[in-house]
Structures are given as C-alpha cells and as structure tokens.
Amino acid sequence: MDDGLSWHPARLVGLDEAFAWRHWEYLWDVPRPGNFTVMARATDTNGRCQPDTANWNVLGYGSKGIREHAISVTIFDPDRA
Predict the structure, then answer these.
(1) Is 80 helix (H, G, I), strand (E, B) or coil?
(2) Which residues, other chains included, contact 3 with Cβ-Cβ below 8 Å and sequence gap of 6+?
(3) pTM given for the model
(4) SS3 breakdown of the chain: % helix, strand, coil, rounded to 5?
(5) What's the rounded Cα separation, in Å, for the pair 42 and 10?
(6) Which residue has the higher pLDDT, 74 or 75?
(7) Which of 11, 12, 19, 45 is the most buried (most CB within 10 A)?
(8) What is the pLDDT of residues 4-46, one digit of tens each?
(9) How does DSSP classify residue 53?
(10) How far is CA 30 from each of CA 21, 44, 56, 61, 74, rounded to the nearest angstrom?
(11) Which of 42, 10, 40, 13 is nearest to 26 (CA)?
(12) CATH top class, domain 1-81
C-alpha cells in the first residue's frame, strides 16, 4: 500500500499444485476511503523475490514482474443513505 516500501505476508488459499498460480488473501485495515494501489510479489522457499519489472519478449514468456492493482474504497454509511 506504500509503493513497495514495506511488504506484508499474505495467506495462500486454494489448491497447492506445483507450478500453478495461487490465490491469496491479505486482511488490510483501510485507513480511509479513497483510491489505493496494491502491489503483490511472490517469494520462494529460498527467500528469492520476483523482480520489480519483467523483461518483455514477443511471446510473453517470463513475465514475472511485480504487478500493481488499483483499489477504490467506499465506506457505506446506512445512516446517510
């Protein structure tokens, strides 16, 4: 939530299959309504993290860079509805 200055562990969910994508979840206390950017990166059992950016190639192989995801948070107040 801070442009990659700090990282927090997420919990892997779903099936654990070799060489497959994994779903994950991270419980986050949202400080206020607004727009945020989430960054996620993988770390293997040896502590190696995926690179910040991916090396581009025509077929898209090896696209392993960290991806950013935009989130818009709206807090619903039933008393103001």
Answers:
(1) helix
(2) 37, 39
(3) 0.66
(4) 5, 25, 70
(5) 10
(6) 74
(7) 12
(8) 888 999 999 999 998 888 899 999 888 889 998 888 888 888 9
(9) S
(10) 27, 28, 34, 35, 10
(11) 10
(12) mainly beta
